Amino acid sequence: MTPQAARIHAALPQTQCTRCGYPDCAGYAQAVATGEASVNQCPPGGAEGIARLAALTGRPVLPLNPANGIEAPRAVAVIDEAWCIGCTLCITACPTDAILGSNKFMHTVVEAYCTGCELCIPVCPVDCIAMANVSGQRTGWQAWSAAQADEALARYEFHRSRLAVARQQGAEDPQDDRKRDVIDAALERARAKRDQRPRD
Fold first, then answer.
1. N-term to C-term CA, the chain
2. Residues 55-114 pLDDT 10s
3. pLDDT single digits (tens) 153-199
4. DSSP per position, 21-73
5. Where are the domains of the chain?
6. Strand-strand pairing, 129-133 and 75-79
7. Beta pairing class for 99-100 and 108-109
8. Residue 94's closest CA among 123, 128, 132, 68?
C-alpha cells in the first residue's frame, strides 16, 4: 500500500462492508489513491467521511453516490435464534468474527464487534438475520468512532489471517458438497417447522 493509500485507509471506518464496490476498505483506499475510485463511495463514512477523503486527496467534496447506498444510522445484526439452523455461512461471511456459534448450533452476534456490514444477511438460507438500529438518529462518523474503526480493522486482519491459516492446513471449504448437504437437510427441517406454525 502506498503512503497516500495508507492515509486514506486510516480515514475510513473499517466496516469492510464492500458497499464501495471493493472487497474491503484497503481495496477502496488504494483505488481512491490511484484515482480509480471517487471519494464519495463509502456510505458508513457518510458526509464527514467524504470530506475527510476530499481533504486528503485535494478533490472536491461530492454528495454520497446513491449507487453505493445511503448514509444511515448504525445498525448491528441480530439473529433470530429460534430459526437459526446452525449452517455457519454467516460466520464465514462476517469480516470481524462477530458471530459466535458452530455447525448445527444456533449462532449469536457479539454486538460490540459487529460493524453493521450486512454481509451475513444475503448468505443466510433461512432469513433469520435482521439489522437493529443502535445509534438512533446519529449517522456516519457521528455513529462510529476512531476506536471502533481501529478495533474493526484489527479484527478484520485477524479474520483474514485465520482463514489463510485454515486454507494452508487444508481445512474444509465452508461451501463444499458435504456442508451443502447438511444445509439442505437443515433447510428442509426449517421449512417443515415453518409450515407447522399457526397462520394469522
1. 56
2. 999 999 999 999 999 999 999 999 998 888 888 889 989 999 999 876 656 678 999 999
3. 999 999 999 888 878 877 555 545 555 555 555 556 555 655 555 54
4. SSSSHHHHHHHHHHTSS-S---TTTHHHHHHHHHHHHTPPP-PPPGGG----B
5. 3-68, 75-134+145-175
6. antiparallel
7. antiparallel
8. 123
Which residues is 129 bridged to in the sheet? 79
Supply the CATH classification number for the domain 3-68. 1.10.15.40
Nearest residue to 12 via CA among 163, 124, 140: 140
Closest CA relative to residue 87, chosen from 188, 197, 192? 188
- The CATH class of the 75-134+145-175 domain is alpha beta
C-alpha 178/C-alpha 197 separation (Å) is 29
pTM (two decimals): 0.82
